[in-house]
Automatic annotation (TrEMBL):
The keyword Heme applies. GO terms for biological process: mycotoxin biosynthetic process. Keywords: Heme, Iron, Metal-binding, Monooxygenase, Oxidoreductase. Heme binds at residue 449. Coiled coil: none annotated. This is Cytochrome P450.
Length: 510
């Protein structure tokens, strides 16, 4: 009866496909036929790096709720964002996909990978010490000093080059800032080339476990890659890049630990490591286990570097491609500050309230968000969850992709246009409120990016000081129509360039 087995297998597969298409709880929701039958399309686009664009195209075709795997729904509405991410009563937690990040970090738990809400809350309270208002005041002059070094390096580099890859230099700046703030010492990427390789490791590393988490056989592959010696062969170059990046971060952490216990030797200088090492949860009294501290350090480097450097590169790209917006912003900066060194981000500084500067940064983050893709949440509990008027059962994966909601014309008319003026009150209050709620470059709610304030400080200081000293010019004029700083979706966004000319401004004294 061996001949019966192939028929039985075909019958079983057919039954699964018919169930997913016709009888599954999500069967009524629209989406591509292949996506409703299999998770292969989702994995393919994650592997390719255009998953955010694919999901956005599905929303454009099918509407505000799209079924893009047999058990996954993507939304692009404010109401869904509120119900899934912002509501304290949300019946959804981080999905099993986050186990790939945890596995890549050696199995230890961090704020990013803690799936249960109570565990995440403990981690976040500990991490909050490193992002407190007091910490921000300590970080600001150090960021200013490094931005000045960055501009000096750019000026020296520009003398020998007609066109510069400012994307690379954005990476060098943000990495050096993170080195100083996290471990008490800049990595020196702006001034020396020996460790610049690390900037290219992040998208390679995150892209590997990002696509692995969406593989149809993810649980089996995850076990083999992270728990057996087969990992280096199955994971390939991505596995080796992950190990190399993790070793780099842990090496910096160990070097910092070897310094004076819990204190940087520079008076008045505190780094994130000290906050994390000495911090205690006010509710439980617990601190960071050393394994989790190492994991947190690695993921701080991922989230804190690529997201901010990508946002900075995108802002410079859009300004250079829209000279009239660039001129307007440079005029705002020039009429507000008398010298470059006066551009600060401390209490009462005018930089914190420059409306057009913030509008340009926000509009750039809208078009090219640091984390562009759908971050999955798994519905838990016996009662399921209501989202946008529909009920979804437990185990359903749901989410909102920033790239998709940022292109929803309901909130952002002419969504492909770079129009900073949309942030300056050109519409009624109710519509402005929706615009703000739909703007989620750093996610939202209890699991939103804890470093958002630091990122905005870095972006405002870098953009304002650079535009005080330089004008920007695109290397190749753009074609007619909207231009986009295209990014690859590797969990964090990864873009090329921008490739620009830096033109020294006359009378740009320090």
């Amino acid at each position: 009866m061996e001949w019966c087995r192939p028929q039985a297998d075909v019958s079983q597969v057919s039954s699964v496909l018919i169930y997913r298409l016709c009888f599954h709880p999500l069967a009524k929701h629209p989406g591509p036929l292949l996506a409703r039958l299999s998770a292969c399309a989702n994995w393919y686009h994650a592997k390719k790096g255009d998953r955010h664009e694919w999901i956005q195209s599905l929303h454009a075709q099918y509407g505000s709720a799209v079924r893009f795997t047999p058990n996954s729904i993507s939304f692009n509405t404010v109401s869904a964002m509120d119900q899934i991410f912002r509501s304290r009563q949300a019946g959804a937690i981080k999905s099993d996909w986050y186990e790939c990040i945890r596995g890549s970090a050696g199995g230890f738990e961090s704020t990013l990978t803690a799936r249960q809400k109570a565990r995440h809350a403990v981690k976040r309270r500990l991490l909050s010490h490193a992002f407190s208002e007091r910490a921000m005041k300590d970080y600001e002059p150090r960021i200013c000093k490094l931005v000045s070094t960055w501009l000096d390096c750019l000026e020296a580099e520009a003398k020998g080059r007609d066109i510069m890859d400012l994307g690379e230099w954005c990476n060098y700046l943000i990495f050096d800032i993170l080195g100083d703030l996290a471990f008490g010492d800049s990595f020196g990427l702006m001034t020396t080339a020996s460790e610049r390789f690390v900037t290219g490791l992040i998208p390679k590393t995150t892209g590997g476990w990002y696509s692995l988490g969406y593989h149809p056989l993810t649980k089996s592959l995850r076990y083999l890659i992270f728990n057996t010696r087969l990992g280096q062969w199955i994971g390939g170059q991505s596995f080796r890049d992950n190990v190399r990046f993790r070793d780099f971060c842990i090496g910096k952490l160990n070097r910092r630990k070897a310094q004076s216990p819990g204190k940087d030797e520079t008076p008045g200088k505190t780094d994130m490591f000290e906050h994390l090492l000495n911090g205690r949860d006010p509710e439980t009294g617990q601190g960071y286990p050393m394994g989790d501290l190492a994991c947190e350090s690695v993921l701080l480097m991922v989230a804190g570097s690529q997201s901010t450097s990508g946002g900075l590169a995108a802002t410079l790209f859009y300004l250079a491609h829209h000279p009239e917006k660039l001129s307007k912003l440079r005029a705002e900066i020039r009429t507000t500050f008398t010298t470059e060194s006066a551009i600060r981000y401390d209490g009462g500084s005018a930089l914190m309230t420059l409306p057009y500067l913030r509008a340009c940064i926000d509009e750039s983050l809208r078009l090219s968000p640091p984390t562009p893709g759908h971050l999955p949440r798994e519905i838990v509990g016996n009662n399921g969850m209501d989202i946008d008027g529909d009920w979804f059962p437990a185990t359903t994966n749901v989410g909102v992709a920033p790239y998709a909601i940022h292109r929803n014309a309901l909130y952002f008319p002419e969504p492909l246009e770079f129009r900073p003026e949309r942030w300056l009150g050109e519409r009624d209050k109710e519509t402005r409120d929706d615009l703000q709620l739909a703007f989620v470059p750093f996610s939202a709610g209890a699991t939103g990016c804890i470093g958002r304030q630091l990122a905005m400080m870095e972006l405002c200081l870098a953009v304002a000081r650079l535009l005080w000293r330089f004008d920007l010019q695109v290397a190749l004029p753009s074609r007619n129509g909207p231009v986009e700083y295209r990014i690859r979706d590797c969990f964090v966004g990864d873009g090329d360039g921008p490739f620009l000319r830096l033109i020294r401004s006359p009378g740009s004294g320090f």
